[in-house]
Specification:
The chain is mainly α. It is 65% helix and 3% strand. It is built from 44 helices and 7 strands. A 5-stranded parallel beta sheet has the order 2-3-4-1-5, with helices on both faces. Strands 6-7 form a two-stranded antiparallel sheet. Helix 30 packs antiparallel against helix 31. InterPro entries: AAA_16 (IPR041664), P-loop_NTPase (IPR027417), TPR-like_helical_dom_sf (IPR011990), TPR_rpt (IPR019734).
């Protein structure tokens, strides 16, 4: 047993907890010894009544004796629908006690992202990306922990915590290695595999420490506790029956012994038979009967307290239970005496009406709540919602009560739930918003409002669950009431959800059908632009006829409005992918800008057009050798999405395309870092989606350029970079990259097959850009030894395509390929021409490769040295090794 046997029944849960307390003591000693120590997470798991709360109370005492700052919070069964509720409990008291400047200093750069979720600042916008909010909270708490060392965070009843807090906890547990904080979690076991249990299991796994399972008391400990409570004269048979009746559950043991004491029952074998009846009175129906025995007013007071769940004060309960203050205070005293409610120490306020109350144990709170008759419970939740609204606490706080009210065609309730959903979205809690809107639909809304609620529900899940958005937006569009700009916006959002769910053909059909409903004008032109956009990124079936229609339509555009600017961008992207004149591509892109900048309404977060159009603009610039403009656009996207808190699809794609720009420039280290971040973000949204392919393909391509073939193969294996491919265009070209990877690992036949498949796709689309999809030069090199005639033809075709496109990079790369297929002086001359073109291009990796190849062909140590320096600058380890090897061997002309 724990040293120093408890002298009061309230200490019962600490009996036989030596191992647990020793574990905590070691963790606290480590935390307090060094402010640079790694953090830790301890999880204590046990079924109801095994003493988790008492153990956390002892941990608080241990930590405070060591000079630690201790913050705590507790989940509640009735509060799981309140987003960030437990995290706010944990952090709000400390942060709200600080002046605003110090709060901002504590949260740092994450103040505007984490502050609204914590309820200490107002949201900056109407929607926050939940992934980014979570990252902001993780970083903010890490920052707080470093400034508040040594800090201990206690989370009790974590199995009832809200999903947003649990997601934060799982993410925070992954980042404890370098932050001095001890997190202690108490939870019940969950064998149902629910979402909350998965988050808690993930947190425990990330911490890398075993979960501490709490056991029931042994017969010996129960006997010791019985004698400590009732007196040493309690005989063995009586003590043994106490253990048998309670099954060694500490809470039930304490409650039973209190009943024995109150009934003045002698603790001897002759009275042991009465223990089971006494035990039944302590829980469940017995507790309810005991509560009723305290009187109708006390029962009503307890019910109201259970409805509130948190923030229980005499005044609040009195208002909810419709009783005067004196009666409410009397009821509070009665319930505290009966060990149903308690006044926590230290008291938060000395005034009788505002002092806080809480249930003695969560089990009692649960039993009381479940004892409320269904109709009464529903009515009291309705009154609680009205009370919270009257107090000006906002629709979001009232929503947890509104969710419990029976549907009754209440127009006001629908509007309250819609407002609550907006407030939840603004702090990054789309799941909570979804629950509110789904409940609003069950009311149901008025016919003219119904479609709008469905539309809002579809928008709420668009960032996190495109598949769910599809059904909701389709339903909204199929009902009357959604007209004008909102209907068009719903169609566009539906097409975007379809696109990101890899249902591209349906995305095209959706906007095409809506466009047919409108007469010629700005609305129809906007929808046609989206149709061309989705067709333009189709990876397999975009036909030459479509390009001609787009060219004809764009030829009439001057860029006078955003619809025309969109068509100019689409035409530029289409021309770039098909290898038309790069000068014409750049001219089209420039005409889509206003004074060299994005037009108002065409920004990265503007909802009317979406991010895809601007990604196409940046890509057109990137492959037309205007990498400065591409980098500027994609850097702005990342900055804007970061500031706006859009941490899902949008930021992943911004990083993927910025990584593409870095890769094109030859900044391979920056490209790898940025693309790994893109993959990490894409993992959150879901695999096999187009954005996931963009990030993964770019990373594999960059690793191959760096000469890290094994890593590239590992990434491909880890993230499923293999057929079947998405139906959208992936940049860089997915089959070219996959083919090059297979060739690099020695799977030549498969690599040639991939490159030949890319050739067929290019033929079906009516041509290709040899820089965007370099399958022709890779295939020519692969076939040089086995089919030199075909290799030569491929190289010649690549030169024609490159000269048609006209960029220095395209022509230089085609010449590199031609030189690789030749020998002697002809190879030297072609390699020299390749160097001349690539030296003028912005693509430094390709310049380094050409310089090294020329140095080897011409036997030029100066060119090899220059190429080596360039390769090292780029981070191209494979190229650098090749140049170094050639220099050391003194290799001359071939």
């Amino acid at each position: 047993m724990t040293d120093g046997r408890p002298t009061a029944a309230g200490s019962a849960p600490l009996w036989e907890r030596d191992a647990e307390i020793a574990t905590v003591a070691a963790a606290l000693d480590s935390l307090c010894a060094d402010r640079n120590a790694a953090g830790g997470l301890l999880v204590f798991r046990g079924k109801a009544g095994l003493g988790k709360t008492a153990l956390l109370a002892e941990i608080r005492r241990m930590a405070e004796r060591r000079g630690c700052c201790v913050w705590s919070a507790r989940g509640a069964e009735t509060l799981g629908s309140v987003p960030f509720h437990v995290l706010r409990q944990l952090l709000q008291p400390a942060l709200l006690s600080l002046p605003p400047d110090e709060v901002r200093d504590h949260l740092g750069d994450w103040h505007d992202i984490a502050g609204p979720a914590l309820g200490i600042t107002e949201p900056l916008g109407d929607k926050a990306d939940p992934h980014y909010v979570r990252d902001g909270l993780v970083s903010a708490v890490r920052r707080i922990a470093r400034r508040t060392w040594p800090l201990v965070l206690l989370l009790d009843d974590a199995h009832w915590a809200d999903p947003e807090t649990l997601r934060w906890l799982a993410a925070f547990a992954e980042r404890l290695d370098d932050v001095p904080v001890l997190v202690v979690v108490a939870r019940r076991p969950d064998r149902t595999g629910g979402v909350g249990a998965r988050h808690l299991d993930a947190a425990a796994a990330a911490a890398g420490r075993p979960v501490n399972d709490l056991n029931a008391l042994t017969p010996g400990a129960t006997a010791g506790l019985t004698r400590a409570t009732l007196g040493r004269h309690a005989d063995d048979a009586f003590c043994r029956e106490v253990w048998a009746v309670t099954d060694g559950n500490p809470f039930e043991t304490v409650e039973l012994l209190a009943k024995v004491h109150d009934s003045e029952l002698e603790p001897v074998e002759a009275h042991a038979g009465e223990l089971r009846a006494l035990n039944r009175a302590a829980r469940g129906g017995g507790l309810v009967d005991r509560l009723k025995g305290l009187g109708l007013e006390a029962t009503r007071f307890a019910w109201a307290a259970a409805i509130l769940g948190t923030g229980i004060t005499v005044d609040m309960v009195a208002r909810l239970a419709t009783m005067d203050g004196d009666l409410a205070r009397s009821c509070a005293d009665v319930l505290c005496t009966a060990r149903i409610l308690t006044r926590p120490e230290p008291a938060t306020d000395t005034e009788r009406g505002t002092e806080e109350l809480e249930f003695v144990h969560p089990l009692i709170a649960t039993d009381v709540y479940r004892s409320i008759p269904s109709g009464v419970c529903t009515a009291m939740h309705g009154v609680a919602a009205k009370l919270i609204t009257e107090l000006g606490r906002g629709a979001a706080e009232a929503a947890r009560h509104l969710l419990k009210v029976h549907p009754d065609e209440d127009e006001e309730l629908v509007e309250q739930l819609r407002q609550a959903a907006r407030e939840h979205l603004a702090v990054g809690a789309p799941d909570a918003a979804r629950h509110c809107l789904e409940r609003a639909l069950r009311e149901p809304p008025l016919p003219e409002v119904h479609a709008h609620v469905l539309y809002e529900l579809g928008c709420a899940t668009l960032l996190t669950s495109p598949a769910a958005s599809i059904d909701q937006l389709r339903s909204a569009l199929g009902m009357p009431g959604l007209d004008g700009d909102r209907r068009v916006d719903a169609v566009v959002r539906l097409s975007q959800a379809l696109l990101h769910n890899d249902q591209l053909e349906e995305a095209v059909r959706t906007v095409e059908a809506e466009a047919a409903r409108h007469a010629a004008g700005p609305v129809r032109l906007r929808l046609q632009a989206f149709q061309f956009m989705w067709e333009g990124i189709h990876g397999e079936t975009a036909a030459p006829a479509r390009s001609r229609r787009l060219a004809d339509l764009a030829s009439t555009c001057t860029g006078r409005d955003n619809a025309e600017r969109a068509l100019l961008i689409l035409r530029a992207f289409d021309a770039m992918t098909h290898g038309e004149s790069a000068d014409a591509v750049v001219d089209l892109c420039d005409r889509a800008l206003v004074n060299g900048r994005l037009a108002p309404g065409l920004g990265w977060t503007d909802p009317e057009w979406g991010m895809e159009l601007l990604m196409m603009l940046g890509s057109a610039y990137a492959y037309a050798d205007r990498l400065d403009r591409a980098e500027s656009l994609f850097s702005e996207a990342r900055r804007v999405y970061t500031s706006a808190g859009w941490r899902g699809v949008h930021l992943s794609l911004a990083n993927a395309f910025l990584g593409l720009a870095y890769r094109r420039q030859g900044r391979l280290r920056d490209a790898e870092t940025t693309l790994r971040e893109a993959v990490r973000l894409a993992e959150r949204v879901g695999r096999r989606l187009p954005l996931y392919w963009s990030a993964t393909c770019g990373l594999v391509d960059t690793l191959l350029a760096r000469g890290r073939v094994a890593q590239a193969w590992s990434v491909a294996e880890q993230y499923g970079f293999a057929p079947p491919y998405p139906s959208t265009i992936v940049l860089p070209d997915i089959r070219s990259v996959r083919g090059r990877l297979l060739l690099a690992v020695g799977r030549t036949a498969e690599g040639v097959g991939e490159l030949e498949a890319a050739e067929k796709t290019a033929a079906s689309r009516g041509g290709h850009n040899p820089v965007l999809a370099p399958w022709s030069v890779d295939l020519a090199r692969a076939l040089a030894g086995t089919d030199p005639a075909r290799a030569a033809q491929l190289a010649a075709d690549a030169r024609k395509q490159a000269e048609r496109f006209g960029t220095d990079t395209a022509i230089g790369e085609a010449l590199r390929c031609a030189a690789a297929l030749e020998t002697g002086q002809r190879a030297v001359r072609l390699a020299a021409r390749a160097v001349a073109y690539l030296e003028a291009s912005p693509c430094q990796y390709e310049h380094a490769a050409a310089r090294i190849e020329y140095g080897i062909a011409a036997g030029s140590a100066a060119d090899l040295t220059r190429g080596l320096d360039l390769a090292r600058l780029c981070g191209a380890d494979g190229l650098a090794h090749r140049a170094q090897e050639a220099l050391e061997s003194g290799r001359g002309p071939r």
